[in-house]
Write a structure and sequence with these properties.
Elements lengths: L7 E4 L5 E5 L10 E4 L2 H9 L6 H15 L9 H16 L6 H17 L4 H31 L7 E4 L14 H10 L5 E5 L6 H13 L3 E4 L4 H6 L5 E4 L3 E3 L4 E4 L2 H10 L4 E4 L5 E2 L16 H4 E2 L2 E2 L12 E4 L6 E4 L2 E3 L4 H8 L3
Parallel strand pairs: 4-5, 4-7, 5-6, 7-10, 8-11, 10-15
Antiparallel strand pairs: 1-2, 2-3, 8-9, 9-14, 12-13, 15-16
Helix pairs in contact: 1-2, 2-3, 2-4, 2-5, 3-4, 4-5, 5-6
The structure holds 5-S-methyl-1-O-phosphono-5-thio-D-ribulose.
5-S-methyl-1-O-phosphono-5-thio-D-ribulose (MRU) binds next to helix 2 and strand 9.
Length: 353
């Protein structure tokens, strides 16, 4: 099996910086962006240079450390709290849908409450430890997701995925794609239909690239091709990621996922959502409460920066949709699989140690 990319990493000690793959350049160029301050990190999240729910959370945690870098050694606790609150607000306002961002910021704030009375340098060191722990835990969760999900894959399966829920979207091997990597490593013969995922082509640019590097057989399709492939009996199972899952199991993911799930239901094909426990938002009773990011309309009227519609064409660009729990065969988490998807099942599984 080939290698999966390292999406982001911290370089050095608490005075160090973050490096992340500039994903807007893929698949043409693999380049790391050096992120040395809070605003560059916010911008990277906004521009989707770093994207995917778990990776956004990790990037935000590192962004907090960067946000406290400018504090003088003589700064008081009040100054530290102010700098933290500012960094938190800037990062939290970057993208609204992925709950991992807010979960990571909450964890960083808890750490500040615990260790915030030290010198600015000690506080930064402690916050970096927390960010590194968030990153490491995500890596381990990806491995566990791969194991849990691969048990659902049968030899010879033709799988389908939407958007990119791979290494590029996490601190490890991905969520939905970790399932494919693991099944492939286990010696199962699998192939993957990759939805191109308009408007920003995460499937074509990122998922096809990742699977290709790892040696997993993958075939790119237009988003509109999934229906006829399913009707022709050429899809055995669907695995996608999620950006936020409500208490009842409704799951927000990249725009178009809901359509894929509805099609899978019509054709009797199992549809699985693969996500770590950090993607669940138990404070929301159902998916209609999940905030859906609306992105600039030029992402729809252009393709890869070139006009694809008449000048001045109106366009609407919701970045995510919500798949109702009733369409989801199972939620694959690092703690096990919830199937059928019910609130009781989710609460029971997530309360497991
Ligand atoms: O807009 P993006 O590229 O951040 O959207 C990413 C997705 O929708 C992923 O499927 C989701 O974050 C899960 S990533 C493991």
């Amino acid at each position: 099996m080939g290698t999966v990319p390292e999406t982001l990493r911290w370089i050095g000690d608490e005075a160090g910086h973050c490096e992340l793959i500039e994903q807007t350049l893929l698949p043409s160029r693999l380049e790391y962006l050096s992120v040395e301050d809070l605003e560059t990190m916010r911008d990277a999240i906004l521009r989707l240079a770093v994207r995917g729910a778990p990776a956004i959370g990790i990037a935000a945690a590192y962004g907090i450390v960067l946000g406290l870098r400018g504090l003088a050694d003589t700064a008081f606790r009040d100054d530290i709290d102010r700098a933290f609150a500012h960094a938190r607000e800037r990062l939290a306002s970057a993208r609204p849908t992925a709950v991992n961002l807010f979960a990571a910021l909450d964890r960083m704030e808890e750490r500040l409450h615990r260790d915030g009375d030290g010198s600015p340098r000690d506080v930064r060191r402690s916050l970096l430890q927390e960010a590194l722990a968030i990153h490491e835990e995500d890596r381990a969760m990806c491995d566990a997701l791969g194991r849990e999900g691969a048990a659902l894959v049968e030899d010879g399966d033709r799988l389908l995925t939407h958007c990119n829920a791979g290494a590029l979207a996490t601190g490890g091997r991905g969520t939905a794609l970790a399932v494919m990597y693991t099944a492939h490593e286990q010696g199962k013969t699998i192939s993957v239909w990759v939805d191109e995922t308009r408007p920003l082509l995460q499937g074509a640019r990122l998922t096809a690239w990742e699977l290709g590097r790892a040696g997993v057989p993958a075939t790119l399709i237009c988003d509109g091709a999934a229906a006829s492939l399913m009707a022709a009996g050429r899809v055995d199972r669907v695995f996608t990621g999620a950006d936020r899952i409500a208490r009842n199991g409704d799951a927000a993911n990249k725009i178009g996922t809901y359509g894929v799930a509805a099609l899978a239901k019509v054709h009797g094909i199992p549809f699985y959502v693969v996500a770590p426990s950090t993607t669940f938002d138990l404070s929301l009773a159902s998916g209609d409460l999940i905030p859906i990011e609306e992105r600039p309309s030029d992402e729809v009227t252009q393709i890869l920066g070139r006009p694809a519609a008449p000048k001045g064409q109106a366009a609407y660009n919701p970045a995510f949709d919500v798949t109702p729990a009733s369409l989801i065969t199972g939620l694959v988490t690092e703690k096990g699989v919830v199937t059928p998807v019910t609130e009781e099942g989710i609460l029971q599984l997530l309360s497991r140690e």
